[in-house]
Amino acid sequence: MRASRWILSTIAVVALAAPARAGTVQDWQNKKNYPARVVGVIWNGARLDANNPVQFGAWTISFEGRSHVAIYDDNPITRSIVIGGSTDDVLGCTNAVVGNRNCQFQLNISPKVSCEIVTYTGTGASMTNIESLSIPCPTALDL
Q1: Phi and psi for 81 in degrees, rounded to 5?
Q2: pLDDT (tens digit, 9 = 90+) per residue, 63-91?
Q3: 71, 88, 120, 134: least buried by Cβ within 10 Å?
Q4: pTM, two decimal places
């Protein structure tokens, strides 16, 4: 009896001490996965997370040391998933010519699958969309 309590206590302590692990989803287009905290965005050969930026053309995109929220926008005409889409949850985008900008991922599902980075100037209610850069769609997300 004593041994089984000790074993159960040890398992409970180990379970509480173990870090929560994100699940990798390859069906990132599936509405059932959202809303979700995004720990990483994965492409063939690249991974964006709190510690690793990625580069697309002249832009370097970073999570700025934290994870972000992904929201499923169920608009029947332009269904999409937005990562870093609120004014207080933007990604960091850096370009050698224009400097730092706030940005977000727009993963478009309909009418066709396409992905882009949308950059902004300003903050809060004065954020203004500047430009969009087409990028490859991710192969998976760590949620």
Answers
A1: -120, 130
A2: 987 779 999 999 888 899 999 876 667 88
A3: 88
A4: 0.77
